[in-house]
Amino acid sequence: MRPPAVGLRVIRALIIVVAVTVSLWLGIRLLRDPNVFSSLGPTLSKIGQAVIAITLGIGGIWALFYAGNTLIESLPARATNLLRPYLFVLPAVAVVGLYLVYPVVGTVAESFASIPEGQGAFYNYEQAFTNEEVLLALRNNLVWLLIAPAASVAIGLAFSALVDRVRRESLAKSFVFLPLAVSFVGAAVIWKFIYAWKPPGQSQIGLLNAIWVAVGGFFVNLGWLEEVEPIPWLQVIPWNTLALIAIMIWLQVGLAMVILSAAIKGVPRELTEAARIDGATELQSFFRVTIPSIRGSIITVYTTIAIAVLKVFDIIFVTTGGNLDTSVVALRMYQEMFRFRNFGQAATMAVILLIAVTPIMIVNIRNLRSQGIGA
After folding, report:
1. What is the mean pLDDT of the chain?
2. CA 308 – CA 314 distance, rounded (Å)
3. Dist CA 66 CA 375 (whole Å)
4. Domain 126-195+233-370 falls in which CATH fold?
5. What is the per-residue pLDDT across 139-153, written as a single tens digit (0 to 9) for each?
6. Residue 363 CA: distances (Å) to CA of 39, 101, 260, 358
7. Where residue 40 falls among pLDDT bands split at 50, 70, 90?
8. Engineered SS bond to 20: which of 35, 58, 63, 369, CB 3.0-4.6 Å?
9. What's the pTM value of the predicted model, to 2 decimals?
């Protein structure tokens, strides 16, 4: 028979669990009621809702864990040791399942279920790989994937090797890393102004065309060129796609530089000194000793940027809206969902992106395990 003290602890723990649950339920109902703070005015009403939301989000989670831990501690020692790990692990697993696994399963199901009457289950996938606009988006994604990660890693590697030799290393790295602090939308707006174009004879507000016309005018005055006209960078196919890729490279070079610079600093000096003693030049030492030594870091940076490239949306949406043959799969998914209300086709685009990202994630995980990370 259970000792009375244990029974009292269980009852007290149950009371705490019920009290916390009821308090959270009342707080959520209060937060959902639009008329609770209406008498305070719009500003104070938002502040009151924010305070309740923060209290429920932080204090509520803490209270739930405390109540659950109190309930578990009221049980016999063997049951407490068995159940306590699950108290802290299961909520995280539940959140991951709710926000990651469930949407993936629902999206895959939607891609097969949302089809016109009389069509087969693979109708959306057949349309995806036969529609010219979708094929164009897939081709553009492939071009992005081939150029952007490789260029970002190459330029970042060059910067990381060169900047380590300058006196103001931290300052130089700050300037290269600074674009990474800019959002994709902000970067797209900035570069849209840089690429801005006006007809010949008008003042060029775009930095690139202003420089192009000024430098070209200098050569025209020397008689080396007959005429120089501003270039509509975002309207010339296929160079507009390359111009958009340049924005992604500008954003990601800082990430590559910081990680690869740290990796280079971790290469043992004995290796590079031994290479120099053997008569290797600086370039030979860099390409045959340093790069093989940081191969794992290079793969990590490359795969990370590649995943970001496959999901690119903001840059194209802000600059060209996907027009002039610049559309990508993520933008096509957005258009199918919100413009055409074709949910099945939008889900298919999402599944295609998931399939494309999965091999890159597998390579990344295997690379990390080979370095002893997460093994």
Report:
1. 85
2. 11
3. 32
4. MetI-like fold (1.10.3720)
5. 999 999 999 999 999
6. 57, 21, 18, 9
7. low
8. 63
9. 0.79
